[in-house]
Amino acid sequence: MKAIALPLAVTAAGTIAHLLVPEQSAFLARVAIMMLFVVSIDLVTGTAKIATLGQAAFFGLGAYAAGLLALHGTAAPLPGLLFAALVGGVAAAGFALFLLRVSDLAFLVLTIAFAALLFELSNQWRGLTGGADGLFGILMSPIAGTFSFDLFGVTAFWYALAVLALALLVLSRVMASPFGLSVRALGLNPLRTEALGYDVRRRQIAIFSLAGAVAGLAGGLNAQVTELVSPSVFAFALSAEAVVMLVLGGAGRLTGAVVGTAVYMGAEHFAAANDPFNWLFVVAGLLLLVVFVMPRGIVGLFSRR
Amino acid sequence: MVTLASVIVDGLAYAMVLFVVCVGLSVTMGLMKVVNLAHGAFALLGGVFVHVLAADHALPPTLAIALAVVAVAAIAALLEPVVFRRLYGADPLRQVLATIALVFLAVASVNAWQGSAILAVPLPEALSGRLDLGFRTLPVHRAFVIVAGLFLFVALYALVRLTRWGVRVRAAVDDPATAESLGLNTATLKLVAFAGGAALAAFGGIFGAEILPVDAAYPLRTIALYLTVVALGGLGNVPGTMLAALGLGFAETFARFAAPTAAPLVVFGAIALALLARPHGLGQR
């Protein structure tokens, strides 16, 4: 029952938003994609308490995977999404397998450095990635052979919303399962969790890989919906902003990730569209507010847990 | 041979800039146990103040640099009690967020004040010539960076190893609880170290501007670089920081020279391997 509450609420809210502002479909699709991405960070940083500022690495890998598949393989959206999630998940698994043994600080540094590395590589390996211009000329075929993408992004919006709702449904289930609860436990107290007989490292690697797959899914979705992939998918700003959205909503719960993204992107859409640098003042203020005044985020204000 | 020597000189200059900026970060992170992403902002502010004082207000560069370094130290001394003291012992995620907020604040302020273009950082006349090394000429300024970096290393090492103040710092890094119970005032220690570290960062930002250009986005661009040096060197470890700066400085300069397209990959691989082999930094036994 609880597991379907969030996906249902998101679907309802998305539908209402779409009915209220039908001309904003492209923006609403972006919000849905970003929600998925922020949820992936919530799994790692919010729940398992592994600090990362490089989640864009897996978002970007998913985006390039989906983009390249569409250009050189099949332009069917659903296989592309699966491929993007797979690439993000495998990359994250490899990253965690090798590097999750270093100290927290070193790991944080490596996540930033890894995304920066991919940013530079995607800029330089022009033959594969198109360099700074990115991949263009992506043309997706209709979803499941039926729903073709339209100029106004209406299909794209429903597509993104459906993927988001499905992913939330699955992830709510996973986080309520014994595995999900043990990940929550190791986030709260790794030593005690280890003492209870759980293999903490294996669970950390598993949740990091799962989050990488979710981030890859978000990246793939983004590539398909915008039909463009550029090195900016690896940008530090993307990772950092997503973390801000997460803590604004309330880290450690999927609802927090979703609410934080909606509030942040809504505010940004109206306030900052053409003034990114002054928007940074607002972001900085929001962050300090969250850290020093309401550490449990917006959702934390309404729940006692 | 000649190019090799040339790459070594450039790598050395780069390493010295990294060391001077990062050594303060390493010591304060060791002391405070706070993940500080905002250290690059002090380097940025140093460069910006010199730009404003010397280029806009035509002050002599030497005076401008001295004023800028003092101003940055003062700002740091103000930030420590207001922001950082509240983060001691906090959840690392909150530390990351609070300090990243400071980064955003610095970026936005500098942009609102000076725009987002690269800012010229004028240096004293005496550093403007070129030095003939036989195999190449070296800007005097770069030679000064190398000498100053080595001098600061020796001075800081002596400060931490040989003076009473250094003993206190090391005690507070290794075991803050015991140090405090023995009557050590770690609060003052942290404040002084933090302001000092910020002053060094400003110094590094000013004299390293030729290698790491100063613009509003500087602290964002250099977060990974500076934290890498600190993580590689080991927290609160002066010789370790020097080793890490040298390693990273040379690795990057060599890789960029030998295989420009693969350079980022080589550097990342080297960092990852070094961290796996020495999880507590190169300086640790």
Key attributes of the depicted protein:
heterodimer; A: 305 residues; 14 helices; globular; B: 285 residues; mainly alpha; 11 helices
Counted beta strands of chain B: 2
Total helical segments of chain A: 14
Structural class of chain B comes to: mainly alpha
- Helix and strand sequence of chain B: HHHHEEHHHHHHH
At a glance:
The complex is a heterodimer of chains A (305) and B (285). By secondary structure, chain A is an all-alpha fold.
Summarize the helices and strands and which ones pair or pack.
The complex is a heterodimer of chains A (305) and B (285).
Chain A: H1 2-20, H2 25-47, H3 56-72, H4 77-99, H5 104-124, H6 126-129, H7 154-176, H8 178-188, H9 190-195, H10 200-226, H11 236-249, H12 254-271, H13 276-292, H14 297-302
Chain B: H1 2-32, H2 39-56, H3 61-82, H4 92-114, E1 130-132, E2 137-139, H5 140-162, H6 164-174, H7 176-181, H8 186-207, H9 218-233, H10 238-258, H11 263-277
Antiparallel strand pairs in B: 1-2
Structure commentary:
- The complex is a heterodimer of chains A (305) and B (285).
- Chain A is built from 14 helices and no strands.
- With 305 residues, chain A is mainly alpha-helical.
- In chain A, helix 2 (25-47) packs antiparallel against helix 10 and helix 2 crosses helix 11 (236-249).
- Chain A is globular.
- The mean pLDDT of chain A is 89.
- Chain B starts with a helix and ends in an 8-residue tail after the last helix.
- Chain B has a two-stranded antiparallel sheet with strand order 1-2.
- The mean pLDDT of chain B is 89.
- The A-B interface holds A 45, 49, 51, 53, 98-99, 101-106, 108-110, 112-114, 116-117, 120-121, 124-125, 236-237, 240, 243-244, 247, 251, 277-278, 280-281, 283-285, 287-288, 290-292, 295 and B 29, 35, 86, 91-94, 96-98, 100-102, 104-105, 107-108, 111-112, 116, 216, 220, 223-224, 227-228, 230-231, 235, 260-261, 264-265, 267-268, 271-272, 275-276, 279-280.
